[in-house]
Every structure is written in structure tokens, then in C-alpha cells.
Protein 1
Amino acid sequence: MATVSLTVNGKAVTANVDPRTLLVQLLRENLRLTGTHVGCDTSQCGACVVHLDGKAVKSCTTLALSVDGATVTTIEGLAVNGVLHPMQEAFREHHGLQCGYCTPGMIMAAVDMVSRRGHSLDEATIRDDLDGNICRCTGYHNIVKAIAAGAEAMGKAATPTRKAAE
Amino acid sequence: MSATGIGAAVRRKEDHRFITGQGRYTDDINRPGQTYAYFLRSPHAHATLNRIDAKAAATMPGVLGIYTGEDLAADKIGGLICGWMIHNKDGSPMRAGSHPALAQGKVRYVGDHVAVVVAETLAQARDAAEAISVDYGVLPAVVDTASAASSKTQVHAESADNTVFNWHLGDKAATEKAFKAAKHVTKLDLVNNRLVPNPMEPRAAVGDYDQGEGAFTLYTTSQNPHVARLVLSAFIGIAPENKLRVVAPDVGGGFGSKIFIYAEETVCVWAAKKVGRPVKWTSDRTEAFLSDAHGRDHVTHAELATDADGKMIGMRVKTTANLGAYLSTFSSSVPTYLYAPLLSGQYDIPAIYCEVDAVYTNTAPVDAYRGAGRPEATFVVERLVEIAARELGKDPAKFRMQNYIKKFPHQTPVIMMYDTGNYAASMKKALEIIDYKGLAKRKRDSARNGKLRGIGFSSYIEACGIAPSAAVGSLGAGVGLWESAEVRVNPVGTVEVLTGSHSHGQGHETTFAQLVSDRLGIPIENVSIIHGDTDKVQMGMGTYGSRSGAVGMSAIAKAVDKVIAKGKKVAAYVLEADEADIDFKDGNFHVKGTDKTLDFGSCALQAYIAHKFNGQDLEPGLKEGAFYDPTNFTFPAGVHICEVEIDPETGITRIERWAAVDDFGIVINPMIVEGQVHGGIAQGVGQALLEGARYNQDGQLVTASFMDYCMPRADDLPSFDVGMTVTPCPSNPLGIKGCGEAGAIASPPAVINAITDALGHEEVTMPATPQVVWRAAQKSIKRMAAE
Amino acid sequence: MYAFTYHRPATARQAAGLLAKKEDAKLLAGGHTLLPTMKQRLASPTHLVDLGGCADLRGIERKGRNVVIGAMTTHAEVADSAVVREAIPSLAYLASHIGDPHVRHRGTIGGSVANNDPAADYPAALMALGATIVTNKRKLTAEEFFTGLYETALEEGEIVVRISFPLVSKAGYAKFRNPASRYALVGVFVAKRGSEVSVAVTGAGEGGVFRWPEAEAALKARFAAKSLDGIKHTAKGINADMHADAEYRAHLIGVMAREAVARATGK
């Protein structure tokens, strides 16, 4: 067993884990943050995507001990004080989910997409950039719409904050 | 239409928990003292189990129990069942091989269950499973669908020629006569490729046993928890139904694969009593590929006869269907009664004859997957019709419209009585959406860029809303296919609706609430939908076959109507009027011709306090239940048109346009219905272009992960243009036909018809991967050069 | 996964020490090949040495006529690097098309190179660009380094430290993705330095990455996609699997080569 300390959704956490524990197991089993899902064994489906130091990663392909000292945000940490993140809101508004299983990973990937590729995302860009996430229910049609709308909403939400900071 | 009533695009009530990570799926459930199960699976497709030695494994750290088929047999735990009896042409029953939850004597496919290890941790269970020594007597494997019946190797002792049944439907003599009279006969050989359903949530189970009560609880990924309880209780013998609770919490997609009762949940719930602690199993993706029931896998020869005017006069079809190593729960119904009765499509064909041979092979069991039988039928019909149009030199849209059924009700020669429809309306709308007139120019533009463009049609029909119980009973079903509902009104007027339909992506918590809110005239927030727990909901047949709207909601409507009827009685006392004079409208009971009213909430309160009436004359309370048994199948139908562009250099097929016009009858929530269409099309495009489960000749599944089995991704698909036409369904009180499977049924032939149109020949198999299309395109180029 | 002991050294030197000292130790870079393999219990190192803490293995630098990339630099960092995009844009392009965005945030150039997956992208770039692989012990050319399927010249206790890419006048990469895994079914990297042209092919060879001399000769005469018209790669020695048989793969080598040249020449 070994100790790992990190910040998850703004809270400092320490856990004693078997070295073979994956980040997703630490989240789901130790911290009971079950919003992050496992949908495959080969790092392809993206149901397990979380943000590690601000970047989307597959938590099923990351050892818990490798993220000692890091900051992790999961789907549970996206809404702030009960206010939904614009991307969460967009998925609901545009029916970007059905069974909900891929959804946490999709939303985390979408937020990461916006941070890398900006607030104005066309359909081709979104489809191209979504190749690390598989959905079996929606045919992606509404996910694409949701991400475009969520990206734009994040831009609008971010503008006043940025101005205030300047 | 109100903002939340029938027909409104209400945003989903269930979404909040899913977008915030608060969904509760089976693997999210942890019981105190929980242990973990790991299944030792056969690495061989076919072998005798000579000896299983678990002595060393049993002493390994954390191991609580290791069980084999012998232990199940000793506890008199029965085998898994197939709930639909099919009879052979000669009237004899199908040959069902035994299907123990843990193998006894023989393993029959890679992934078959040899033993289970229960341990403190999953890693310990897996470590111990690796230490079990198994002496396999490896046998040759039967893998190929078409040749299984002539194989010298026998999968089950019960069937000498690996045949489950030889079945047929239709009038053979009339069909032969039609073919003799035909001016033209179109012939087609095709393979309907085997698919792996792959809902994103893998299957999982947590078995729990309460020693004090002597009662079991099973949390499982099920589309029909009551059916699971029925089978586990009445057939497998885990416990009587009153001592077995089955909970299917949030379920991450099913597409059919979570209808069935599998070995793993059976063993988990049984083992919970053996080890005296809860037992959890969660499938990984590789296990899912190996052991979830697969779909499709037909080899078919089909012929269509037309007369001198291009009128369809007969169809004959011969299909071999691979059912895998064992008969899964509803497997036998899929290539028979869910298949052949749809071969008339949308067309007036006077004579149809279909023969189906079902075979055992050393592959995973095959059962219903989104569409189940109907996609296979539609692929046969729509490929035949498209090719016939090409051979006759007719426009494929006009040829279809010429042969559409135009008068309803229409009795087909293969059981079904179509109740209503307007097929030409859907075709005309789809032609407009796709801009059929502009196709020739688009083809020229593509050709200028060295690309090949093609268009493909699919006029599909499906039989949904399954099904009238007496009718399916006469065809061999072991169950009735009604649905049940209970509407509980609380004293403050809020409502809980308990339904036997299960929601795993379909949005029932929203659409069902829309119906109830609309009928009772109360805010949608005041309606909660409860499902998925046999302790809460009395009975149910579950969600599959696009039945939750047509059957499940009809049961709810019936129960709501009973609540209103009871409410009228209560209101009559409160308003001091005659019951016959009470009206109910917009959430108020009122006395006709007066201004005396009682709102629904007040009526509920009066029903419970029971001050205004004598409890002997009228029962207090406001709670009603209903069972609804449909009078007919429903017949959603529509036209999908796909336009593709092929790069002959690489073989890549891009879908450029997609027009879908569907007639689902009355639509409760268009946003959700469109979402179902999108998802269905994606799965059908997956079948047509990307997906295919492949076994090698030794019976090893070579597509056992997402590395090799190609799941549709966002960049494989276009956005879809979805339109609708409406002919209300006359067979249920809501006019609903169902929408869950349409996309998956319609789309494969639309894609292949488009590709073959682009290529100018018919030699393309599914999945039409870049390699397949490249090779086919080389043939086209050679032919064009020769011309 | 089988049990293992986890180590997280802070420098490459410490990592090398652990690798030398510990029996049956394996290096963990981005983990996107090794961890799935371990999850499937197909690899079972007793000791796992995580290079994620070795700051000296990270970073991108322009050194004269070379771009030098630390082994633990992620694909995303290479793709987004202003230095790489300016000096060797085709390399940034290649990095931006490895796996998916999440994989690129973890996967590293050193891990990819040391694993030498026959369907990986980087080996083609290293070979075509004439890169030098610098280990804790020596310097190797790409031709010396890549020795076969999943095989490299790395010896016991040897760690890839950085990779040095000499600048070229023109370069381009094109890949045809395996529809399922999204790895390279065929990937072709072309590079032109002075009058020298190299064409390296990944994904297709039975022995891993290889060069295509006929295409090089044709492009040397004239560096244009058209120069490759009529030149076909033989199907001999080419991989075959259910996604692409040897004939189709061989054909795709030509198609991807023309596309790579078109990219390199901006046409």
C-alpha cells in the first residue's frame, strides 16, 4: 500500500492505495465519486474522462500514484455552488444524452475541447475532436449541437469575469 | 398544447442527475460486506470439461468460495431458458440444448462460464481463477453460419445436425405459382453481419441475501426486472418470487442485450447465500464482447417476382440464422416471428414464402438487438426492391410508390394486419428533404472531383408495441406481453406513477410524466415516475420492441382514467352533485352548468380524509392500477434516404446527406423521438459501414475490443434531417406507434443501396469498410473502362 | 493487473539506477500502452518506474539546426509547441493526430518511440527526418534504433532521454487510420533535406517502420506528388489483418505518400 495526496474537486484528499489502483478506481471506490464511469479496457470510450491539472485525461489509464500532488476535477466538481456549468446546461437543453453513461466523460471532454479550441466551434471541428469519446445512444447529432452551444455559452459566461480580472 | 403536455419538447427530468454525475448505475451500488465475483471463462470454443481442480486456488488469499456447474446442479439450480417455443415444419418442437449457468461437462464458446471465484477483492478473485487448473478436451469448433448444419461436429447432443429448427411461414404453393407467372425475377444473396450491442454501461450484478428474511435481492443491469425475477424464480429456482427482489436502477443503455437473463446475475444472487455476503460482478468490455448476446447473423437467399407492369407479385426467402452456442432468452423468436412477418415491407405482395433454418455454432448466443428480426427483414426487402428497380430500369422512388399498400387495414400474406399508414406521404417528404431533383448535378460535381456519389432508399416497416398476449401465445411465446401501471395520488395531489416499463435512455421519466400531467391537468413537477424495482412496482414486462409508449403508456393512461373516474365519485360527494353531472377538465372537477369546482389536489385530499362521504359507500383513497393488453401490433413506417460520396482511391464512404421521414403516430415529445431516430440511424450506419463481429475458424472472437470492433464515432456520422408524418395508431388509446428501433431498422439498406448506386454494381457486403468499398470500386473502374 | 512495487524517481539518473538495480523493472511513461497491457494481465513487471516525475526528461528546445524534444514530452505539448510548429510543422501535425485529445495529454514521444508499435506514428517521423535518439548511454540513428516489431536497440537499463530532429526544407505526414483503433493502418512521412529525400512508412510493414526507396528516388528527381504516379508498393512484406489485407495496405502506401508530399509542398 502507498499513500497518495491530491486535490479533487477543490478538496484535499489523501488515500492509502494498492499501487495498481487506477485513478478511476481511486475516484469511484475510495472517494465514492461514481459519476466517472468505465466503459472499456482499451482507453477508447472516454466514459472515464476527468481533468488532471486542467487537462482531459482518461482516468482508466492513469495510476492513482502517478497523480500525487495533482489537481483533479470530475463531473461532480463541475457545477459550482449548485449552479450548473454552461456545458452541463447545454447537454440538457439540446438533449445531448440518453442513458447518461457516457455523459460525464463527454461533458468533461467538451469543456476541455473549448479550452483548447475556443468558443466558436463548428460541426466538423467538434466531430473531429470528439474521437476519444464513444456514445451508443445519441448518434452524436445532439451532442454536437450541445457542445457548440455550450462552448458559446462558456464564452459569454467567461467574458465578464475576464474583464473584471483585467 | 401546453408547454409540458403531449407534443411538447419538454427537457428531460432525469437529466439533472446524469449531467452532474449523480446517476446510480448497478456498479455504483455497494453493499456492506460486499465480495467480488470473477468468472473463469473458457479459452476454447468447444471442449469437454474433463476435470476442474480448484484445490490450490481455494486456499489463496481472500478466496471465499469457488463454484462450478456441479455446485449449481447440487443446489438444484436450473439452466437458463429460452422463452419462445418454435415448431418445425413437421410440427415437432425445436431442439433446445441444455444451458447451465456454469458449464457442465462441456464448454461451447469462448467465454463460456467454467467456474466462479468469490473473494474479498476482485484482484484476489482473478488471481485465484488463474490458479484453477482445468483439463479441457479440445474439440473442433463449428463457427460458420451457412455450413453449421453440415458440420461433422455436434454442438449439442440434442441436435445431431446442429439445427435448432426448420421453420417456415407463408403459402408455398401460391408463391411458386406467382414466380411461374412472373415477367421478371430479382435474385439476391446476402449476409446480415453479426453485431455486438455494446451499450456503454457493461452488464453488472450485485446479489444480496438477507438471512433473517430468507430473501434475495439482485441489483442488475436489466431492461425488464420483473421478467428477470420471473425467470430466476419460476425456471431457474433461485427463490420464490415473494422472496426475490430484482432492482434495475439507472441502466446505461440496453438495445436488447439487457433483456436476457444471463449466467452472471444468476450465479451472483445464488452465491450471495453460499458465501453469506453480497456478491458483486461487473463486466469489463472484453467480457461484454465475449458473453453479451450478439445480434443478427443471417445468411439469406431471396427472390422477388414482378409482372409486366412492374407490380410485385411474389417473394421467397430462405434464411439460415446463427443462434450461437445456446438459446438465449428470446433468441428463437427473432429470426422467426420478428422477421418473416415483416417481409411484406410497405408493399402489396400477394404471395410470400419464407423458410428459416436456425443453427447452433460455437459462438456467443445470438438474441434480440435493436430492431431484432425487423432490420434483417428490411435489409432483405429493401435491397431486393432497390435491385429490382435497377434491373427494371425504374426510378427506385417511383417503383416503391407504385407498389406501396394504399388501402388500410391491409392483411399481408405473412400474419400481419397493417392498421394504418400513408407511405407515399413519407416518401414525398423525404424526396423533398434530400433534394432528389438536385441529385444529378451533385453526382456530376462529385465525378469532377474523382468521387462517386450515390443515393439509397429504404422504405421500412416494423411491427412494434409488442404485443397482444393471446396472439403471441398462439405463436409460441411463454409470456403475455401486456404492461402494467399504478397511479398513486398523494393527499396533496402529487402523483407517483409506477410502471413496468424500464427506462434506460428513452426518457420515460419525462414522457410518462407529460402524459399524466396532461391528462390530470397538474404541473409536470408534481408527477414522479417509478420503475425498475420489483418491490415497488407490482408487475411489468419491461422495455423492448418499441413497446413502452404504445403498451406501457396505454396502461398508465388506463390507470389515470380510473383515477379520474374515482375522483368524479369523490367530487360528487364534495360538490353535492350527481356523479353523472361531474366533468373533469384542465385539472378541475366541476358540476356541469354550475360554477362549482373542485381542483384535483383538493379532490385527492378529500379522498384521503374521507369526511364528505361514507367509507362504506365509497372507498377512501385515490390509487388505481391497470393492465393494458394491446389489440394489435403497431406499425411504424417511414422512408430514409442516404446520400454518400465514395473516394475510390481509399474506399472511404462519407455520408453526405440523410433524410429520415417517419410515421410514429402520435408523438409525446418530439425532441426525445428525434433523439431515438438519431441513435437508431447511428447503429444502423454502424452495421452498414463499420461493425462486424468476427470469429476465426477456431472460434476465437477476433473483434473482442474497441481496438478491432469499430464503434461509430462522431466523425463517422453526419447530422440527420429528420421529418415526420402522422397517421394516428388506431390500436391503442394514445395513437402511439413507437420509435425506438426505427432508425436501426431503416438505415442499413439505405446505406448499402447508396453505395451500390455510386458503384454501379451490387457486390458490396456489410460492413462496407474502406477495404471492401475500395475493392468494389476497383471493379467499377474496370467496368467503366471496358464500356 | 498483477501486483507491483511503484517507484517515482525525480531524475533520469535515478530512474536509470532503479532500472539497473530492480529485478524485472519496467519504465512507465504516459502509460497508454503499458497500463492497458497490464490491466489485461499481459505484462507483469515486479517494479514499475514512473518517469512522470523526471522534470529533466521534459521540454522542447531549438538547438541550432535541431529541435530537441525530451522523452517525457506529451503529444499535446509537441503538437502545441510554437518551436515545433515553426521549425518542423509536419511533426506538430503528426503529434496532433496521435490517438485522441485525452491520449495526447498523457502519451509521450519517448514512450511511443521506445515501444515501437508497428502502428505508431512517431517512428515514421524519426526515420524520415533522420532523428537521433539520445539515451542515457549513447546516441542512435532511427535506423539503428528501430529493429523490428516492438523491438528497439535499447539495452537493459537504457532509457530514451531525448530525441533530436534536424531541420528539413520540406516535410509532410499523412495517415490512414484504422477505423476501429484509430492507430495508423498506413502512415507515410516524407522529408526533403537539400537534394536528399526520405520516405518512411509506418503501420504497414511486417517488421515495423521502413523506408520506401522507389518513392525516394522518384521524389528526388522531382519533389511533387505527381512524381509518384504509377509507382506502386509491393504487397510483399506488408501486414495483413481483418481491417486491411496486404494488397489494400500496399495501395494505401502510395495514396498516403502522395498526400504527404502534397502536404509538404503545400498543394
Note: Chain B has a mean pLDDT of 97.
Protein 2
Amino acid sequence: MILRLWPGTMEDRVSAIVELMEKSGLRTSRSPEPARPIIAVLDACPEELAERLRAMAEVESIEHPLGAWRRVDRSFRDCPSQISVGGVAVGRGSVVVIAGPCSVENEDQMRSAARCARRAGAHILRGGAFKPRTSPYAFQGLGREGLYLLKQAGLAEAMPIVSEIMDAAQLPDFLDHDVDCLQIGARNMQNFTLLKKVASARRPVLLKRGLSATISEWLQSAEYLAAHGCDDVILCERGIRTFEPATRNTLDLTVLPLLQQWSHLPILVDPSHAAGIPGLIPPLARAALAAGADGLAVEVHPRPEVAKSDGNQALLPGELAGLVADARVYAAVGGRHLARQNQFPVPAQNS
Amino acid sequence: MQSENLDLLAQTRRHLAFLDRALLNLMEERSRLLSALDQTLDTNLDDLLMRANGDFDPEALGAVFEAISAGCHGQRRSAR
């Protein structure tokens, strides 16, 4: 249950309402929404108390989320959330493109990929340092060294970075390398120990949808993050497993308009993993933006033919530039705009 | 029959309103893109004229894009 109080309600009245609920043994959580007081009630509220609350002059409405989530529910905020990833605005009309190679392989590859991504107009640099591979014999990533190379490439191009964390024990490495956004991969979407640990870092999190996760399960994973201190959650649809073998996964665009009704969180689409075929990525990206996606996450590689992982689904740099140009147009038609790329720092003047 | 015509008229009006909003949004985005530059960039009108094979009068294209360029923040004319 979520209580939406009228804008301008005095703080002492808000406190009195919270106290009333807590005296009844209910746990509550206050929304960071600045426009009005909004209180989530985390436990089941007895009908008698709900009636009493409904009758209060300060209470504008009582909303009931469709699932067991509270903090990520649409009614917990007045407007859709906008999240800053290293200075780049994501959501609420600001459309982003995250681009980079599947895996960080070496310094030259990462620097070249970052340069391509920046020149194409992408905003955030991605790159896997710890790789969850289906085969134990496949390239598993460079680990800590990969994070270092990714960060250096990001700094060189004034791009915030995002990388997947697979294990709670890796968190110090991610913080040491100042990774701007921590990615929870599809396979770990319901690794609740990892979610709790990552939330404690208080950094933006990119939460990919599990391979076979329902929307409800996905939002409850987002709620785990919010409940443990991370309000800056970005959802990412990357295709789900279906009976169709022609593509790597099936991109579920239905979630876009649906989640905009259910949640205030921004939602991105990863057409690279959904399709697994480079030629399908641009049309899927356009469809995603037309359906309201807050951005795209795509794989790009300067030389996909020699990539150590997923080269067969990576875009070439020129193709990425075309995708960003499409994104600009499709976002604009819907009254939104591409986010601004971070500016390069002005070099210090010697006086 | 008359009510069908009215439906069609209302539907067309909605479509036009959507297209007009989309055109406005695109012009706003064009202006936003140019506002980051200190220099002007000309529209490649010849290329557009080659592509103009629909119902829009090609002779009007030049005036349309001249007006769009004038309206863009990055190329706004200071003299009035």
C-alpha cells in the first residue's frame, strides 16, 4: 500500500501518520519525491487502519501496487525517475546509448572501441571484465585488469562506465576502479545476496531481466536493490527465452509501455543480446525507442571478427553511428531527446 | 455515410496533429543539435530535392528548409 499525501502537507502531520502506522506494527518507507510526501507501507495494512488513513484530510489517495514491490512502484514518485550515471542523465525524456565491446580484451581494443563509441555519439561505455560464459572453456574476462582498462578508456573519452559484477566479493574491485554503474546480468537477476551487497555501494545499478523472469520477478529484484539502499536502478530488457530458435532470445517490447505504468524506473533495451544477429539490431532499436525505451545498450567492436566473445552480434563503428542517428530521430518524434555526452574536462591553465 | 466522413475527418485531423507535433519535435531536436556548434551548417538541399518524390511540392522545400535553418538556435540570425 502506498499513501500519497497532498503536496504541502506539514512535516509534523507526516510524522504523525507514520507514527500511527508504526505503532500498529507496520514498517514504512518515505519516498525521496520532493514534490509531496509519499509513504510506502511495507506490511499488509489491516482494513480498519486503511479506512482510518483514507479518511484523513492529508491523504490524497491510497494506491495498491500490482505486486509485492513498493519503492519501485509508479505511485512512489510523482514523475518517472531520472538517474545520473557519472553525469549522464538517464530517463524522464533523456535517452541514452550505452555502447562498447562484450569483453574488455586488451588496451588497444578498449581504447579503439571507446573512441568509436564516443565519436558515434554514445554516452556511456560498457565492457565486460568478469564474464559469465555458458561454456567453462570460453574466455572468462580479464578481471581486475579489465576494469582498469575500461576505466582508463572511459576517462580518455569522458564517458562513464558500466560493467557486470558477478560476485559480491568483486565489489571492492569495482569501487577501486570507480565503476560508475554496476550491472547485474540476466543470470544473476535473482541472486539476492549479490543484489543486497551491490545496493550497499549506493551506485546506479543496471538490472538486466533474467532469461526466464516474469515482469513481477524482475520488479521484485529491483525492489531488493531499493530496499537495501539503492534507489538508482535502471531496468534493461535483453530478450527472454522462448520456443523460437531463429534468434538468440525474443525481445519482449511489451514490457516498455507496461513498465511505464507499473514503475517509475527508467528502462533500457539491449537489442544485441536479444537478437544475436547484427542486422536485426537497428530495427529492434528503433522499435524499442518508438515503444518508449529510455535508451539502448549495444555491443560494438572495432574488429568483431577477432572478438573474444559475442563478436557475431557486435555492431561495427559505422553501424553504431547510424543507430545513434536513428535514436535521435525516434526519441525526438516522441518528444524526448538524446542525453548530452559528458564534456571533456577543461585542461588546467598554467598561470 | 455522412457520419463516416466525419469520422474520417476527425481521424485525419488527429493524424495531422500528431505529424505536426512530430515535425515540431524534430525541429527542436535539430536546433538542440546545432546549438552545441559555433558554426553554421547548410542543409544539403540538392540531396533532399532528389529524394522528394511524394506529394509535397518540391519547389516549396527550399523555403521550408530556409525557415527551419533560420529558426534553429545555432543559426539564429541576430539582425532583425
Note: Chain A has a mean pLDDT of 93.
